């Protein structure tokens, strides 16, 4: 993945356009932030059918989002992706 460019929306604190099309914007946000030991399965099911899942995951990886389900991935799954990317690029992470 290449590093996404910051859009004016990021700099102004506005939502990126893809978030308007995200299925999670139409559901209970608490499903995407399960309590410790809680199930991520409900959020992952919704993400699986979302047209902006890839953009969402790229956004979370680029910003090192520490909490919640983003692009169908948990915090731990995203950390693994970042570690793998760092290992294969010799310390450079292209998220």
Structural class: mainly alpha
Mean pLDDT: 84
The general outline is globular
Number of helices: 5
Fraction of residues in β-strands:
under 5%
Helix content: 40-55%
Biggest β-sheet strands, sense, barrel: none
Q: What is the rounded Rg?
A: 14 Å
Give the helix/strand layout.
Elements: H1 8-12, H2 18-21, H3 41-48, H4 53-62, H5 75-88
Written account of the structure:
- This protein has helices at residues 8-12, 18-21, 41-48, 53-62, 75-88.
- The chain is an all-alpha fold and 95 residues long.
- The longest helix has 14 residues, at 75-88.
- The radius of gyration is 14 Å and the shape is globular.
- The chain starts with 7 loop residues before the first helix and ends in a 7-residue tail after the last helix.
- The model is unreliable at 1-9 (pLDDT under 50).
Quick tags:
95 residues; mainly alpha; 5 helices; globular; disordered N terminus
In short:
The chain has 95 residues and is mainly alpha-helical. Helices cover 43% and strands 0% of the residues.
